[in-house]
Amino acid sequence: MKVFIIGVSGSIGGLLARNLIDRGDEVSGLVRRDEQRADLAARGIDARVADLADITPGSLASMLRGIDAVVYTAGSNGGAREVTAAIDGDGVVKALEATRIARVKRFTLVSVLPEAGRGQEFDEDVEFYFAVKKLIDVAVSESGLDWLILRPSALVDNAGIGAIALGPAQPHDEISREDVAATLAELLHEPRIRRQILELTQGSTPIATAVQTNIR
Ligand SMILES: NC(=O)c1ccc[n+]([C@@H]2O[C@H](COP(=O)([O-])OP(=O)(O)OC[C@H]3O[C@@H](n4cnc5c(N)ncnc54)[C@H](OP(=O)(O)O)[C@@H]3O)[C@@H](O)[C@H]2O)c1
């Protein structure tokens, strides 16, 4: 399978790329600096250079020809509003359009649990981030593509445990980025899971079993 990861230089993007390559998949992706491209090439990843804030859907589409699935795991992680709007908002809209232009069917978005901030006092920029993420989930779910939205709970850098809780609704807790990446890889290898929003947190079900449980 040929997978294009938007955000391949990021934590989840890099872990997902490694997981897919280990399975024998071909991974390419988008980075915004030349030096990232060289680093990734050394790991067998064919990266293209462009900034999501400037790229057009047409030029992104030209990078997606022949790809089987697009994964969007780029994000501002709640920075300034204009960056959030550009990367968590408009960037996803451009990627959806590019996916359609390139006639790629599958599009997977790494989103966030909408209630992740409940009970906490966030500044307005973080509130804005959650609002943008939710509205983009709407856009992805109405895209007509074979979309999948994965909403992990709070990301931590602990080693993965290979066991998760995955389903239409999960409580907000924590999950290791390694387990998120392993779950994404498993989901990409299960095309019967499509047009679903799945929430993900740490749990006790082996990843492959948890994924199979969500086939409808
Ligand atoms: N933090 C949490 O607890 C949490 C919880 C649930 C979901 N999430 C979501 O999970 C996703 C991935 O998390 P992560 O830990 O992997 O994040 P990360 O390590 O910060 O990776 C973000 C990626 O986005 C890329 N990016 C940002 N701006 C860009 C631009 N203008 N053009 C091109 N690429 C750009 C980054 O590129 P560079 O390497 O160049 O910076 C990087 O590859 C995010 O969307 C986040 O919203 C986070």
From TrEMBL:
Provide the NAD(P)-binding domain boundaries. 7-191
Coiled coil region boundaries: none
Pfam families, per database record: NAD_binding_10
User: What protein name does the entry list?
Assistant: Uncharacterized protein YbjT (DUF2867 family)
**InterPro entries given in the database record:** NAD(P)-bd_dom (IPR016040), NAD(P)-bd_dom_sf (IPR036291)
* Protein source organism: Micromonospora echinospora
